[in-house]
Design goal:
Helix content: 25-40%
Number of strands: 15
Number of domains: 2
Number of helices: 10
Shape: globular
Order of helices and strands: HEEHEHEHEEHHEEEEHEHHHEEEE
CATH superfamily of the largest domain: GAF domain
Largest sheet: 6 strands, antiparallel
CATH topology of the largest domain: Beta-Lactamase
Amino acid sequence: MPVTDHTRSVAAEVCDAVRVVSDFSAVVVLLQSEDGGVLTPAGWLLGGGAPGQAELTESASGSGPGARALALGVTLVYGASDNPVDDLPLWATARGFTVGLVMPLSRNGKTFGAVYALRREPQSPTDAEIHMAELAVLHGSRTLPVLVKDFVLHEEDEALTYTPSAQEQVRDLQRLSFEGLDIDPVREQAELGGQAVSLSRTEFLMLYTLGMQPGEIVPHHVLLEVCWPDDFPALSAVDATVYRLRKKLSLAMPGAGKDLVKTVRGKGYRLVAMAVEKQPPVEVDESGLDVPETAPALLD
């Protein structure tokens, strides 16, 4: 499936959205090719002359930022100590960009592209700025066409064939509702206190897995198997993802991150949240009046 004019138009909208909600001056949208082998440019706002398509293309299985975001399913921050700016692609550093985010595009628990957001000013992005950029990319994940052949989609997405995936057991489960916290596996989105929480694929899978057993300890190896079924990252990847998950929950509700996701040292993590009981449906008689389950006793 080639990059069509429609795909370029939608990608341009994603670029505009990221720039509007953040201070990043350049945005590039890369989509995984039909055979899955490369990340090909679908849209960009760079300035200083249009780049060639080959210049922006990168391997989907290599060690570049786009491939890492694709494999890990998390946002990577470049220009910070853990990801030096030198690790950015040559097309980015040659244009003088010193700070950047690389955010995965994902749908149905599977990644299909990456979005670069870059700037030349050296200041690191704030948590709020990352949050807003991720929300824009989250919306783009739902509107951008998918190029990968036989990509996993929900049944209502009729454009491509539905096939099973490694994370089927998570997405097919029910919506989880707690006091103030709602976790929706269909939309792959969480809300805390009525505020949307932008989560990467891996962060969402971790929150949902913890939510499946509220109050109980979920060991590190279980979180590794669910969140990275096709990769084998170090055990520290779980701790790093929990750290980011807590920060995002606390953005929606200050202090909520550590209150909700508790560390059980040497064993794993657990979600501390009160489940909301489903209310039984109210019976209605033919007159439209509510009918209580038990009729009140008549007084003599």
